[in-house]
Amino acid sequence: MKQNLSLLCDLYEFTMSYGYLKNGWKDKICYFEVFFREVPDKGGFVIAAGLEQIIDFVENLHFDESDLEFLRSKKLFDEEFLSYLKNFHFDGDIFAVKEGEIVFANEPMLVVRASAPQAQLLETFILLTLNHQSLIATKASRIVRAANSRSVLEFGSRRAQGIDAALNGARAAFIGSSSSSACALVEKLFGINSVGTMAHSWVQIFDDELEAFVRYCELYPHNTILLVDTYDAKRGIKNAIKAFKQVLVPRGIYDFGIRIDSGDLAKLSKFARKELDKEGLFNCKIIASGGLDEFEISRLLKSGAKIDIFGVGERLITAKSSPVLGCVYKLVAVEDGKLLIPKIKISDTINKISNPHYKRLYRFFDGKKAVYDKLCLFDEVVSDDKFTVKELLVPIFEKGRLVYKLPSLQESKDYAQAQLDLFDEKLKSIKRPSSYKLYLSPKLQKLKRTLLKKAKQ
Predict the structure, then answer these.
(1) Burial 176-208 (b: 16+ CB within 10 A, else e)
(2) Is the alpha carbon torsion for 173, 177, 178, 179 positive or negative?
(3) Rounded mean pLDDT of 53-61?
(4) What is the mean predicted confidence (pLDDT) over 139-152?
(5) Residue 72: pLDDT above 70?
(6) Confidence band (pLDDT; 50, 70, 90) for 64?
(7) Is the pLDDT confidence value at 3 over 80?
């Protein structure tokens, strides 16, 4: 499934890069930052994800003859620019937060330092990747936290908005702490365990629901989960119990489950638990699916639903309640000889005014808990006798060479959970979370005020 994605790029990235070359700025070094302005779902934080795919893109970015011929056909570019693209190789620097890092609004998640054309040509892929995977990882984390230690299975591939959304969405959901995926290719690509139950069609193809259940138990005795709501859910639950007792229990097998996909999930799960326990099937798991998200899961558990596992599809894989993260890619500084010139984006909309200059991002810890973050200018020395300080942006590429050791996907998932544990529980609340402070250093505040004042003159 390897593809050359060099043209997965807004056309204006090419026209601007061409313009940089024609203005003599082929080697002009620029600094771009990626950040978002608001947390989706009015949540407390975002989990960063997608860095591995960005690294792969940057390492393999090249323009083949068909790409160059396509751009030539646009009649916008001269042969000098097409020759530049033919010999393209990223030789700049990239800094980023680790996958699984907890980040907040207006904090740089990734910084590119490169020549103007190179930096511009990375924008689209970097944004679409961080926007998508960070959004889904964050949504998955919300759903898992709502499930309150119960397993959450990612069931979204059939409802995802395209192939990449299904595959990398499942990857991101895993970083956000989903336990498995329904998609087999996800396991092949990423090593995420793929799981499945059955569809209603399995039950419908038989003349009798009980026979359908019995045959499935015989086929998959150690992986039996029966979908009980094809016709009448209560009758389906009773037929599932009959099949378990007929096929599995005589063989000493007690680890199996039922899935309820529709109806009053709370009421049906309570009925199922009562019937199962009455027959001594205490280990039988009850799985619920169908239109679930963190809000519905919270409601179900609050009502006393007897659900052990949640299968979550479209509302996870599309982040349906808040489907856009909104990362932006903004120029913050340029090099002019030995000078580093700050740049700022100004707007009448206050939250669209950017924080200027090349910066570092620090997190301050009081004992084992994170208490606030601070943005500082790149040359500031940061220390505090009262707090432990951690720099969040780490080197990924230096002069075009990958210097970052990629963790495994499981390590990124574990890292995300470990970082979450460092924050106050109120910040992790699904509804009305507490706020977390991001401070600008005094020098950065002064610079921002100066640039704003200058722009109004």
Answers:
(1) bbbbbbbbeebeeebebebbbbbeeebbeeeee
(2) positive
(3) 96
(4) 97
(5) yes
(6) very high
(7) no
Q: How many residues does this entry show for the chain?
A: 457
Report pLDDT for 2. 66
φ/ψ of residue 154, rounded to 5: -85, 115
Spatial separation of the C-alpha atoms in residues 360 and 377, rounded to whole Å: 6
Whole-model pTM over 0.90:
yes
Angstrom distance (rounded) from CA 199 to CA 445: 58
Burial grade of 353 (CB within 10 A; 0-12, 13-18, 19 or more): middle
Which tokens sit at 212?
A: 């359908």
Cβ proximity of 395 and 368 under 8 Å: no
- Residue 198 to residues 202, 316, 332, 371: CA-CA distances in angstroms? 7, 20, 52, 47
Full 3-state SS string of 161-175: CCHHHHHHHHHHHHH
Residue pair 116/17 in contact by the 8 Å Cβ criterion: yes
Distance separating alpha carbons of residues 313 and 245, to the nearest angstrom? 31
Q: Which residues contact 335 (CB under 8 A, 6 or more apart)?
A: 28, 29, 30, 341
